Amino acid sequence: MSNLNNEASAKTATQDKRKGTTKRPEAPKKVQMIEPVLRRAPQQRAPSESTAAFLRSAEAEANLLDSTRPRLESSAAAGSRSSNSRSESAQEELYMQQVQDALREGSPDVPGDARSAPQQVQKRPTSKLAPRRQRPVSPAQQVQQDLSERMHQHVLGGRLWYKECQDANQDLPHQLPLNYDSPDHYVSTFEPLLFEEAREAVRSTWLESCDMKKTFTVDITSVDETASGGVHVHLKPSMPGNRSSMLRENSLVVLTLSKPPAKGALEWVQGGRGRGPRRQNGSSDEPHHKRQRRDLDQQEGHAAMGAQAYNPDGSGSDPMRPAPLGSEQWASSGPGLSLDQQRQIVAEAEAAVGRKHSLLPVVAGVVKSAAWDMSGDIFVTVFPACSAHAHAPGSCCHQVIQSLRDKPKAWHLGFAGALISQEREYKALREVKNMKVAKYILRPQLLAEIGSEMEDHQTMRRMWPPEARTPQFLQFIRDQYDQTQQAAIEIAACHLGKNAQTNMEDPSLAILPFVLIQGPPGTGKTHTVRGILNVWHIVHYNRFLESLVKALARYANGNTYRPNVVRIGSEEAPVSQRAKDVWVDVLIKRYMDMDSATWQRRYTQLQEQVTKQTYEVAAVQKALQRTQDEQEQLEKALSSAVERSKLQEQLKRSVAEGNTYSYQLAHLHEERDKALVEMSRLEEVAPLARNEHGPNKRMVRDNLELSFVQEAEMVFTTLSSTGRKIFSHLENAFENVLVDEAAQASEIAVLQPLMLGCKRVVLVGDPQQLPATVLSRQAQLANMERSMFERFQKAGCPVTMLSVQYRMHPFIRQFPSQHFYNNQLLDGASVIAEANSRDVMYDHGYMKPYIFFDVSTGRESRQGTGSLRNQGEADLAAALFFELRSMLVDAHHAKKEGVKATKVGVITPYRQQRKCLQDTFLALCAENAKEVVIETVDSFQGKQMDVVIMSCVRASEPGLQTGIGFVSDIRRMNVAITRAKRALWILGSAATLKASPVWQALIDDAEQRGTIVKDATAEKLFPDMTELLLMQANRRSPTPEPHPLALERVPQDARVDPQALNGVPVQAEGHLRHARGGTMGVKMVPMGAKGSPMS
Q: Three-class SS of residue 529?
């Protein structure tokens, strides 16, 4: 996703306040905020506005505490004298409550701006080893903490584990609507789905933790309930050296009473297996009603177990344990309850509870702090109760609290990740009402009304920004982009025109707050995005220059200006070196790792550069003033001259000379401002470079990050990263936001950058390709994977579609164009030229541009509860690659015409089949297997290969139709069959795949075009590989048997008719032996060998 700063901050420049220089126009606000930092030495630099606000808030609280402490301490002392039974923790609780009340009411010693927002006073748990008190938080931070706690309560409660809790909470919508009545309606619809998806993420991460055996035992030191429904639990590792140091604040953990199994941990929890034996003193993790039943039986003659009674005043060894039937507490709870009446109460409790108390105690919590030393103290806040059972102490989820008290030893702690992304999405969801584009998010039909006004091309031309209307730039656009790409660029940038901005009352000039651009496979979507950003930047940059100098000619000296861009986010995905060079973490590391000598040398160079540029600025300004004076004189002379031609020529030269000086002046100002900004960054890291004690590295890093982002003209980042704190510290809004792959993101995820004050959103994607990944089955049924792009499209919002594709051979393009894009895809000139050129690969009878191999004898298999695999398809895929490579190597050595460098990819919907393919290729192709990219379909979106082999896997036994699972998803199918450039070979069972209508259509289309190979197997199509395949099959089978198809000849009718494919006669001779030396695999060119067509 790409964000572009607004017009005011499109280009940064600081004013030169030195004497003797010409006053410059006002710089963007974003730079004004950082300007004071640029002019001061490190020891004199004032704190930033956010830092100053925090210091004022902290000072206000300190003043208030100082002014109220005598009164509060005397009050606490008086309370202590009047009631000796009051505990120290109760006194502290009263004291902190009085402080909080005083802060809430205000104090004469507190400034008004500090009293305007309530401050948070942390309540300390009653444990002696409590987490350290946190510093005061701002109102914005308090809101975020409240949202985070609300999410934890709903996500981590009993609904996470117990079916009873899930059945009691029926708040998930059945289907998401297209329009919403209000922001509250929007939030109430998406909030339960977001929580449910977060629960599934917690379960999945915990299951992976169990599978990887990332659990360890802990003992419970204390359990303290809170008024908000949470429970503070103090834990200690049972054994030294346990992995408490791996925990981080706000990470999630799961506590279970027994060690979870590596496989099937969720079923193990819900099935209730693993409960430990009852201890001899009668204390166990059995439910209340069972213990009461046992006590009643004891009174009728059975041995007493010595259970203790519940005492309302808090006395007794276990205040949460129920009293035995027949005791004084039972008698005092009613007017003379008999044993029969007590038995009736227990029976009713048993009937109400049913089976829920047979479940294993399990609870999830959030880590508040974890010691990294040998003590290993861990403070966790758990939320056992679901919302439906918040006030039902007898419910299954509430019983976990009792288990935590009864069984303090040997709990098992497992890792469950964190809810960082989900919390950011939740914050964005709650901020919908404050977004500038909120009404269009709620009612996208409004976009259809505006879009109908923009169908007139004359209207769009009037809105087109004049800064991008120069003949040179328009010619550049026409040369670089096709007509549909030009239309997309036009509609995405026409809002920047001055007519569109100054004449909002004219309906014909109303702008689209949301622009939808659909990019089918191979249509140059990324190329078009680059064009949009190019126009955005040119317009903003030129407007900045216009505010800097007058009468500036655009790119007067013909140079190309490259915008200042940064990239924010993690480096998980592989990126190019150019992308890494602008990654903000890399930029920060260069400064923080600087040694003293390097720092001093660079700082001295910058000082000298700034001094030199200051003199140059003065000289250019003097020359510019001279030309301006000359122009004034010539204009006066022209007004009274008879012979004007000579004066007009002199005036023209003077104006051109002045424009050149104007450009030079702007360039000098920019370069000097950049040097000043870099000097400020060096001053920030000066203490680190000198190895001085005291600097907070985290604060230094944050300040550097803020500097880079504020100075950037474009910020490239992921959707989730826009929720980082750095963006909340920026003063200027991101008025223009472009979201790439918008159809692959959930609607809630797209909301995150819209919080940053955006007025214009461009969504680029393709709803016909893979949607967002949604883990929860219930969320999937509610259509949570539907993107904002798709919802707006269905609501009638205009969509600009890129319709010229530059990837696929026309034979490959034919089916997806017909079935997914209403026959709108056209072939680009480069594709047509490539298809008409000779390709030696097509000389092979089984290696045409588009073939469906009907692997009718292959069978799907499942290992345990894992994914599916199909060995027959894996063998055929490896054989096809083997044959292709041998053919191309022979043609290369024979110097045949049409040998092209070829990249091969193999894709499959299933992870287990990917592993099967990797093993098979390695066994059959040895080192040459590294030349093939083998991936799942989902990970292949956005990629392309010359040749793509797709393994469908699904193949049920004859007469047994089991369905084809998510292979039937037409979006996944569309991605799979549009990755190839020159050849697409699909391997699958036609009989099984025909259960899906769209696969039925594909197979019928292949039959009509004569591009289907029936009864295809590796042994039948490539008999020379039979011996090698038989060896591999025997290795896989514990009882090797002769292969039934060994040495069988390929029937003539199983071959593809070359005439039906491309009209080029091809001879398929000798059962397609292309390897030199007789059998396949002999004298193969090693990977990367010089001259290899596959390298």
A: helix
State the maximum Cα–Cα separation within the chain, in Å, rounded to a whole number. 133
Give the C-alpha distances (Å, rounded to integers) separating 934 from 787, 904, 905: 28, 9, 6
Side chain identity at 1042, as an amino acid letter? P
d(CA 298, CA 306): 10
The verdict on 599 and 648 lying in the same domain is yes
Backbone angles phi, psi at 482, to 5 degrees: -80, 180
Q: State the CATH number of the domain containing residue 764.
A: 3.40.50
- Choose between 192 and 696: higher pLDDT: 192
The alpha-helical segments, DSSP class H, found in 697-852 are: 697-711, 725-728, 747-754, 777-781, 788-794, 810-820, 829-836
- Residue 869 scores a pLDDT above 60: yes
**369-386 tens-digit pLDDT:** 876 555 678 899 999 888
Is residue 175 exposed (0-12), middle (13-18) or buried (19+ Cβ within 10 Å)? exposed
Beta partners for residue 905, in sequence order: 933, 948
Using pLDDT thresholds of 50, 70 and 90, give the confidence band for residue 624: confident
The neighbouring-strand residues paired with 515 are 762
Taking alpha carbons only, the member of 429, 435, 397, 383 closest to residue 194 is 429
The one-letter amino acid code at 168 reads A
> Average pLDDT for residues 106-135, to the nearest whole number?
39
For residues 791 and 839, state if they share a domain: no
Rounded to an integer, what distance in angstroms lies between the CA atom of residue 896 and that of residue 923?
A: 30
Cβ–Cβ contacts within 10 Å for residue 673, how many? 23
Sheet holding 980-988, edge to edge: 932-936, 904-908, 945-951, 980-988, 850-854, 1012-1013
- Integer Cα distance of 669 and 40 in angstroms: 19
A 10 A CB-CB count for 254 gives: 28
**DSSP letter string, 399-431:** HHHHHHHH--S-EEEEE----HHHHHHHHHHHT
Domain of residue 763 covers 436-501+509-563+719-800
Task: Collect all residues with Cβ–Cβ distance below 8 Å to 643 and sequence separation of at least 6.
Answer: none
> Token match 């502290």: residue?
92
User: At residue 956, does pLDDT exceed 70?
Assistant: yes
Q: Which residues of 46-60 are buried (b: 16+ CB within 10 A; e: fewer)?
A: eebeeeeebeebeeb
Other Cβ atoms less than 10 A from the Cβ of 123: the count is 16
Regarding whether 988 and 885 lie in a shared domain, the answer is yes
| DSSP code at position 89 | H
DSSP codes, 246-305? G--TT-EEEEESSPPPSS-HHHHHHHTTTPPPPPTTS--S--HHHHHHHHHHHHTTSPP-
Residue 667: which of 555, 551, 540 has the closest Cα?
Answer: 555
600 domain residue, yes or no: yes
Tokens of 81: 């004298």
- Average pLDDT on 927-953 reads 92
Pairing between β-strand 378-382 and β-strand 231-237 as defined by DSSP bridges: antiparallel
**Burial level of 214, CB count in 10 A (0-12/13-18/19+)?**
middle
Contact call for residues 319 and 365 (beta carbons, < 8 A): no
CATH code at position 855: 3.40.50.300
Of residues 522, 524, 515, the one with CA closest to residue 493: 515
Same domain, 524 and 637: no
- Dist CA 287 CA 275 (whole Å): 12
CA angle 189, 251, 264 (to 5 degrees): 80
pTM: 0.73
| Cβ-based burial of 321 (10 A; exposed 0-12, middle 13-18, buried ≥19) | buried
**If 0-12 CB within 10 Å is exposed, 13-18 middle and 19+ buried, where does residue 434 land?**
exposed
Mean pLDDT lowest among 316-325, 432-441, 476-485, 510-519: 316-325
Q: Edge-to-edge strand order for the sheet containing 2-4?
A: 565-568, 714-717, 2-4, 736-739, 760-765, 514-518, 799-801
Sign of the torsion formed by the C-alpha atoms of 955, 960, 961 and 962 = negative
The answer to whether residue 698 scores a pLDDT higher than 80 is yes
